[in-house]
Structure formats: C-alpha cells, structure tokens
Specification:
- By secondary structure, the chain is an alpha/beta fold.
- It contains 8 helices and 6 strands.
- Strands 1, 2, 3, 4, 5 and 6 form a 6-stranded parallel β-sheet that branches.
C-alpha cells in the first residue's frame, strides 16, 4: 500500500532577493513541486501587516513547515520573526487549548555565508548551525512540532562561482520530493547535526 503523501508549506524570507544567487532559485524550484505550497513572505506582506487568520489556516492545512532563509546575524530575517510573533499565538500554537500544531514537522532550509568550519566550537562563530538555531528548535518543542536538522548551504556567497549551486539545488529538489512522498526517515533526520540527502539511510525507497 503506497504511503500517504505530505502537504508541505514553504515560508520563504529573503529581504534582498535581487542579490540572491541560491535562495531565489531554491524558491522557484519549490514552487514547481506538487504538494509544496511556496509563500514569499516579503512579497505577500511588504508592509509587514501579516494576516494571522490566513497564516494559521495555512499551517492547519499542511503537515510539514519549512522556513527558508539566509542566516542573518545568527537568526532569521525580520519578517519571519514577525510571522512567528503574530501567528504562533497563545491558544493556537501553545498555552491553554493551544494544540493545533501538535504532530506537525518543522524544518529550516538556510544559507550561511561562512564556511562550515566556522560553525563549530573552535571556529569563528563558536557554535554549530543547529546550536545557533536552538530558539527555533525550542519553539517547535513548545508548540508540539517535530524538529528536523537544518538543510544548510555553507559558503553560500561563493557557491555559484565555485559551481556548487547546481548540486545544492539538486539535493534540495530531492529533499522536497522525499518530504512530499513521505520517504524521509524523520527519526534519523531529527537527530542529525544537519541534513545531507547523500546519507544513504535518510531517504527511503518508495514501496
């Protein structure tokens, strides 16, 4: 019997897309995949007036939420923080009767300007990518969502000129299809430091 497919909601936040060599192509690819609802938050809410009811309904209608963004000062771009502050409200996402997101899955797909070696205890940034994203991981825990290791491109500023962008986009497409088709080993993905679709145990064959 085929596995039930997942509905994936992609929340894309990039404040300077005209300078994007990786995130913009990632968003365009995601927009073409059946089962993925791709939302450009800066385009949808240029004045930051977020429609809370609409966003909450989007969350309810999907199984997996992906936050896609470039890492800015060890955090998310401003509109994604605004989205969290307004949409994940008491009584909906947490608190008394706030159980609407329980059992759903959260994944961050990010780009980082620095090399991977810079994101470790002895490196320039002193913390791993997953450690720097602990506020989002704890948010997922509080609101009852399963949190997966981040899908990350390091040294993103030079990825295109070093011809690493094509491989990343191929991996991204593979990951999105695996999420939609329920092929990802969620238990394994939750325990990793970062997602690597080349991990032979991460993506299962369709039965």
């Amino acid at each position: 019997m085929p596995k039930q497919k997942n509905k994936v909601l992609l929340l894309f936040a990039h404040p300077s897309q005209d300078r994007s060599e990786i995130n913009k192509p990632m968003f365009k690819l995601a927009s073409k995949i059946d089962g993925v609802t791709a939302i450009d938050l800066y385009r949808e809410y240029p004045t930051f007036r977020i429609d809370v009811d609409k966003e909450q309904q989007r969350l309810l209608a999907h199984d997996i939420v992906i936050m896609q963004f470039p890492l800015y000062w060890y955090s998310t771009p401003a509109i994604l923080k605004e989205w969290q502050d307004l949409v994940l409200e008491y009584g909906f996402a947490y608190g008394h009767d706030g159980t609407m997101l329980h059992g759903k899955t959260l994944l961050c797909a990010i780009t980082a300007g620095g090399a991977e070696a810079a994101y470790r205890k002895e490196g320039y940034n002193h913390f791993t990518i997953r450690e720097l994203l602990h506020p989002l991981e704890q948010t997922a825990s509080l609101i009852g969502m399963r949190y997966l290791a981040p899908f990350t491109l390091f040294s993103s500023r030079t990825a295109a000129e070093e011809n690493r962008d094509k491989k990343h986009l191929e991996d991204w497409t593979q990951l999105l299809n695996a999420l939609v088709n329920n092929q990802l080993d969620f238990e394994l993905a939750a325990g990793l430091a970062k997602l690597d679709v080349q991990n032979i145990d991460l993506i299962k064959e369709l039965l």
